[in-house]
Design goal:
This protein is an alpha+beta fold. The chain is built from 2 helices and 7 strands; from the N terminus they run H-E-E-E-E-E-E-H-E. Strands 3-2-5-6 form a 4-stranded antiparallel sheet. It has a 3-stranded mixed sheet with strand order 4-1-7.
């Protein structure tokens, strides 16, 4: 029984240290300032998406060089890890600009 408790404690401690870099925030439409759902938030390897309130939490095992926010119909935003942390600490949302792509005639 003691071995099982020790093993469980070790696994719990390991799980808590797996995420060394975490950033949270909110993504809004730059024009309407409405929350954006299903925005991709990634470091290029690991990612997440925003919830229905535009909120996200990205948990990584190391600090990324940049974090990319992208959504169909919007210009992608690339922020350094330091910029992400600054936005988070000041409670500033990430603003995505709508983008129009003109398709050629078929």
């Amino acid at each position: 029984m003691t071995v099982m408790v020790a093993l469980f404690s070790l696994l719990t401690a390991s799980a808590q240290t797996d995420s060394l870099w975490t950033v949270s925030g909110k993504v809004l439409d730059a024009k309407s300032h409405k929350a954006m759902m299903s925005v991709s938030v990634t470091d290029g390897r690991v990612g997440t998406v925003t919830n229905e309130d535009g909120e996200f939490t990205l948990k990584l095992t190391r600090e990324p060089s940049e974090v990319i926010f992208s959504c169909l119909g919007y210009k992608s935003v690339r922020l350094s890890a330091a910029a992400c942390k600054a936005q988070e600490s000041q409670w500033k949302p990430i603003l995505l600009q709508p983008s129009t792509v003109m398709l050629s005639e078929v």
